[in-house]
Amino acid sequence: MKKGLLLSIVLTINLPSMVAQDRVTGAPFATRSEVLAQNDEAQIRSIRLASNDALKAYDHEMELSFLTDDCLLTTGAGTLLVGKAALRNYIEVSAPSKMYWVRSPLDIVVNAQNSLAWERGSWKGYDPEQGEHQVVGGNYAAQWTKVAGIWKIHSELFVTLE
């Protein structure tokens, strides 16, 4: 696993300043203080990598941990989901699906004074039951907010273009 992924997992679950181990690989995580030492853009990129990995692993609780409780998410088809509870329900309804998404940031702009950040990029959707190639894709934008020193996704807009 990449070090950035390991750092963002610790950051997100707020482990105390101690070294923990990944329960799958046994690899040590970095300490919370090492994570917080990253600059804001690096933290956001690390969290995005961990978010992608959580989606690919169908670890929905981990994926939800990267979002604020009052998050707003507009799906690629235009459905607006308001709050984690609505997103959790949306995931549960589509649970039989093996689709997962990979988001690739192109730009991240941070306003440290206001604890806000903007991310822009492209996304691709994959269905392992249909092969290794993407089956859908498009562009996205995300608003991040820093909550108690931790970057969280407050809103995301996905537009299906492929």
Features:
single chain, 162 residues, alpha+beta, Nuclear Transport Factor 2, Chain: A, six-stranded mixed β-sheet, disordered N terminus
SS element count, helices: 5
What is the tally of beta strands? 6
CATH architecture: Roll
Q: List the secondary-structure elements in sequence, H or E.
A: HHHHEEHEEEE
Mind explaining what this structure looks like?
The protein has 162 residues and is α+β, with helices and mostly antiparallel strands. The chain has one domain (3-160): Nuclear Transport Factor 2, Chain: A (Roll), CATH 3.10.450. It has helices at 3-13, 32-36, 40-56, 60-65, 84-93, and strands at residues 67-74, 80-82, 100-111, 116-126, 134-147, 150-160. A hairpin with a 5-residue loop joins strand 1 and strand 2. The two termini are 30 Å apart.
Summarize the structure.
The protein is α+β, with helices and mostly antiparallel strands and 162 residues long. The protein contains 5 helices and 6 strands; from the N terminus they run ααααββαββββ. It has helices at residues 3-13, 32-36, 40-56, 60-65, 84-93, and strands at residues 67-74, 80-82, 100-111, 116-126, 134-147, 150-160.
Secondary structure elements and their pairing?
Blueprint: H1 3-13, H2 32-36, H3 40-56, H4 60-65, E1 67-74, E2 80-82, H5 84-93, E3 100-111, E4 116-126, E5 134-147, E6 150-160
Parallel strand pairs: 1-6
Antiparallel strand pairs: 1-2, 3-4, 4-5, 5-6
